[in-house]
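Consider a protein example.
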Amino acid sequence: MIDVTLLGVSALAPLPDRALTAVMLACAGRRILFDCGEGTQSAARKAGVNALGADIIALTHYHGDHTFGLPGLMQTMLSMNRAQPLTLVGPAGLREAMAPILALAGNLPYDVRLLELPTGGLRLRDVDPRWPEAARLAAFPTEHRVVSQGYAFTLGRAGKFMPERAKALGVPVRLWSLLQKGEPALFDGRVVRPEEVLGPPRRGLKVVFSGDTAACPALEAAARDADLFICEGTYGENGQEALALDHGHMTFAQAGKLAAAANARRLWLCHYSQMIQDPEEYAANARAFFPEAVCGQDGMAMTLKFEE
């Protein structure tokens, strides 16, 4: 199960009724915050989300509207006596970009770990053993005016448990739950691996966050079959494609077309230009390609569950 909350949908600057674009993802009690612009912790409080408990903050790029909320959030974590490490993830140049941020945050009693994701992504249990075994975070390159990347969070699902196989192998019933979670069972000096008692892997869950980007093949590939695709739609009107490309962004129609091409199951639009007063006025432009497109709003939330 994955809980996703859209904390804000604004681009460039926060508005009285629209926070800067950021997303909180929670799974098995662990949390990832995607981007952290000015006012993100206030937006999280308004949405009823605990940003202070974020284990990982994944930055799509280092423009201020995606990073300037970090010093304040990190200091609030300090004031709340945080002890657990905080992992900051970002594209190339992370250490240099975070130097002034960390200087502003001051002396912190908890470790701050800087991590550029390896090619092929990261098993999140390698960051914190409390993450589910099958939880992974991968980055993919995007096309913005600076080095940037989007993120794909996946939660794999093991195959159906075959009790008759476990019985045949003599696995004690008390250890069945380990195998069902995809972990090996050790008993009587033997090791039984999950694949010995499980059927073929079942469909898992996938959440993709575009960050700031023009439409590009890497984004379409990353969004393939996503259960939830959260995609920027900086410009609402058709005919603004050249403007969007010049600034490294997308139109509503481009987002809808890309989501359809990727066979995404759900599309949430976000990162609206301040020229857009009411996103619903332009929603038809996205829905012409992806009929179920939703104009994201601050505080919008969804729980994704495995199919039966």
Observations:
- The chain has a mean pLDDT of 95.
- The two ends are 12 Å apart (CA to CA).
